[in-house]
Design brief:
Helices cover 38% and strands 22% of the residues. It is α/β, with parallel strands linked by helices. It has one domain: Rossmann fold, CATH 3.40.50.2300. The chain has a five-stranded parallel beta sheet with strand order 2-1-3-4-5, with helices on both faces. Strand 3, helix 3 (64-74) and strand 4 (83-87) form a beta-alpha-beta unit. It is globular and about 35 Å long. The model has no long low-confidence stretch (mean pLDDT 90).
Length: 125
C-alpha cells in the first residue's frame, strides 16, 4: 500500500510492558506510534494524533478498556478508525459486537500481530 503520510498507530493500554512490546512490534514494521494510557482523555488524544489505527489493550468485561472501545465507536470523529483489541479473553464475539475490528488473544507473536494489522488495512511502510 503506497501511503503519502507515515502510518501512525496509537497504542492504548494500562500495562507498561504491553505498551513497550507493541511499540517495538510497530517499530519493527516501520510504523510510527503514539501512546495513551487508559486513564487519559482518549478522545482528545485520538482527535489530536489522528491515528490510522488503534491498538487497544482490554481486560475483563466492564473494565476501562471496554469503556474506551465504546466511546471510540460512538463518536463520529473516531468511529471510522480501525481498532485492534489485544486481550487475554478466549471469546472475542463480545468484543466484535462492541466495535472491535479485530481481536487477538495474548500473548501475541510478531507475525500474528503484523497479519492482524494487514487485516484491518495497515501495511508495513
Amino acid at each position: 500500500m503506497n501511503q503519502t503520510a507515515p502510518t501512525n498507530i496509537m497504542i492504548i493500554g494500562v500495562d507498561a510492558h504491553f505498551c513497550y512490546l507493541i511499540k517495538r512490534y510497530l517499530k519493527r514494521g516501520s510504523h510510527h506510534s503514539s501512546l495513551a494510557n487508559i486513564g487519559d482523555n482518549i478522545l482528545e488524544k485520538v482527535k489530536h494524533n489522528r491515528p490510522s489505527a488503534i491498538i487497544l489493550e482490554i481486560g475483563r468485561p466492564g473494565t476501562a478498556g471496554w469503556q474506551v472501545l465504546g466511546k471510540l465507536k460512538t463518536f463520529d470523529d473516531t468511529r471510522h478508525i480501525p481498532i485492534l483489541v489485544l486481550t487475554w479473553q478466549e471469546d472475542h464475539k463480545e468484543l466484535r459486537q462492541a466495535g472491535a475490528d479485530l481481536a487477538l488473544r495474548m500473548p501475541i507473536l510478531y507475525e500474528d500481530f503484523e497479519n492482524a494489522l494487514k487485516n484491518v488495512g495497515i501495511q508495513a511502510d
